[in-house]
């Protein structure tokens, strides 16, 4: 599958780390989708990425920080973009940013926001 055929969701893509990942993926020819709770952050991201790649950047206002929010975002994204082939998580869920402590998912479950990331990825097969 060529890069252009792939739609990479970058969770946290409007953030400091995520926006760099988004830029890099766009420069390599991927389609990229970013969900943020803040439309202003998405506008800022659009102006940050190279103009020639902007038509491959799909943005959506949503909240993947809850199960319900992730489901809603998944539905809206699949409707607008059609598919999700890859998911990258750069969510700011670390404990020093108000997220769970690092040992919270010691039972083997993926930590914090990664759970929603995996839900989005697996959801494409539903
Ligand atoms: N920045 C660094 O130098 C650095 C260095 C090492 C590791 N890291 C790690 O990299 C990750 C990202 O850091 P960052 O500096 O890029 O953080 P950031 O700029 O604050 O961006 C964090 C992103 O996570 C999303 N997010 C945070 N809490 C959320 C919630 N409750 N529900 C939904 N989305 C939420 C935000 O979404 P919205 O757009 O909706 O606000 C934002 O896009 C963190 O895990 C951090 O620990 C960062």
Characterization of the model:
The chain is built from 4 helices and 4 strands. The two termini are 21 Å apart. 37% of the residues lie in helices and 16% in strands. Mean pLDDT is 84; it is low at 106-110. α1 (16-27) links the parallel β1 and β2 (31-36). It has a single domain (3-123), classed as 3-Layer(aba) Sandwich (Rossmann fold). The protein has a 4-stranded parallel sheet with strand order 3-2-1-4, with helices on both faces. The chain is globular and about 40 Å long. It has 126 residues and is of the alpha/beta class. 32% of the residues are buried. Bound molecules: NADP nicotinamide-adenine-dinucleotide phosphate. NADP nicotinamide-adenine-dinucleotide phosphate binds next to α1. Keywords: Oxidoreductase. This is NmrA-like domain-containing protein. It comes from Pelusios castaneus.
Average residue-wise pLDDT: 84
CATH homology group: NAD(P)-binding Rossmann-like Domain
Form type: globular
Task: Write out the strand line-up for the largest beta sheet, numbering strands in chain order.
Answer: 3-2-1-4
What binds here, in terms of ligands, is: NADP nicotinamide-adenine-dinucleotide phosphate
The residue ranges in which pLDDT falls below 50 over 5 or more consecutive positions are 106-110
Structural domain tally = 1
Quickly name the level 1 CATH class.
Alpha Beta
Helices and strands: which structural class?
Answer: alpha/beta
Residues in helix, %: 25-40%
CATH topology: Rossmann fold
Main pleated sheet: 4 strands, parallel
Q: What portion of the residues fall into strands of 2 or more residues?
A: 15-25%
**How many β-strands, per DSSP?**
4
Spell the H/E element sequence. Answer: EHEHEHEH
Termini Cα gap: 21 Å
CATH architecture identity: 3-Layer(aba) Sandwich
Q: Helical region count?
A: 4
Based on CA atoms alone, the radius of gyration comes out at 14 Å
């Amino acid at each position: 599958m060529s890069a252009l055929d792939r739609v990479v969701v970058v969770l946290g893509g409007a953030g400091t780390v995520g926006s760099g990942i988004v830029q890099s993926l766009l420069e390599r020819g991927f389609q990229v989708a970013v969900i943020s709770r803040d439309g202003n952050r998405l506008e800022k991201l659009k102006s940050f990425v190279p103009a020639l790649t902007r038509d491959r950047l799909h943005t959506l206002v949503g909240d993947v920080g809850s199960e319900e929010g992730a489901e809603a975002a998944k539905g809206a994204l699949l409707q607008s973009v059609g598919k999700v082939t890859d998911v990258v998580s750069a969510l700011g869920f670390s404990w020093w940013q108000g997220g769970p402590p690092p040992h919270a998912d010691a039972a083997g479950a993926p930590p914090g926001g990664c759970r929603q990331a995996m839900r989005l990825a697996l959801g494409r097969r539903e």
